[in-house]
Design brief:
Layout: E1 3-8, H1 15-31, E2 34-38, H2 56-61, E3 83-87, E4 110-114, H3 122-136, E5 153-161, H4 173-176
Parallel strand pairs: 1-2, 1-3
Antiparallel strand pairs: 3-5, 4-5
């Protein structure tokens, strides 16, 4: 199976992001995946800063758009790859980490981690609960709440099989966003 690891690293460079993306490059080599790191914006989607939870500072830092939307560009590679992992530029991968692609069997289209299911410290539990309430309490979706907050996926690492394409309905990354 052909595997791709896609990262978005746009905006101001930092030692942390450089260190983390280097670890992902090495990881991709180790597991036999192709690594693509997008360093320039493509979609340049500009959200309404008055209706988003992102700060004006973050908005202005990236030239009037939010880089998180650039991750959708990975979808344009399904024609060439059987599996795609989208890994944030601030994720460090240890040398002894197994292939994340092996965790997503063919029966599934998408894999991610529910934030509250990770082993977390007490101080983070409170932060997670506050974040959940701020982000999700006004949205009419059953987030399956518990004492740690809403059941949402941390989008820092996502893995998709080619079968995920059916959810795109032939839309381009821009149309999907």
């Amino acid at each position: 199976m052909k595997k791709l690891i896609y990262q978005v690293y746009v905006g101001k460079k930092s030692r942390l992001y450089n260190h983390c993306t280097k670890s992902v490059v090495e990881y991709a080599k180790k597991i036999g995946a192709v690594h693509i790191c997008q360093t320039e914006p493509i979609l340049r989607i500009k959200p309404d800063i008055f209706t988003t939870n992102r700060s004006r500072e973050s908005y202005e830092k990236y030239g009037g758009y939010l880089p998180i939307f650039e991750k959708e560009n990975a979808f344009s590679w399904f024609h060439k790859y059987d599996q795609i992992a989208i890994i944030d530029a601030d994720v460090y991968i240890r040398e002894n980490s197994p292939s994340i692609f092996d965790e997503l069997t063919e029966e599934y289209d998408f894999g991610g981690v529910v934030e509250r299911s990770a082993p977390i410290e007490n101080w983070y539990k409170q932060k997670l609960l506050q974040y959940s309430q701020m982000q999700f309490s006004n949205i009419q979706v059953d987030w399956k709440w518990n004492d740690l907050g809403a059941e949402f996926i941390n989008m820092g690492i996502m893995v998709m099989n080619k079968s995920f394409e059916k959810y795109l309905n032939t839309q381009s990354p821009r149309a999907f966003s």
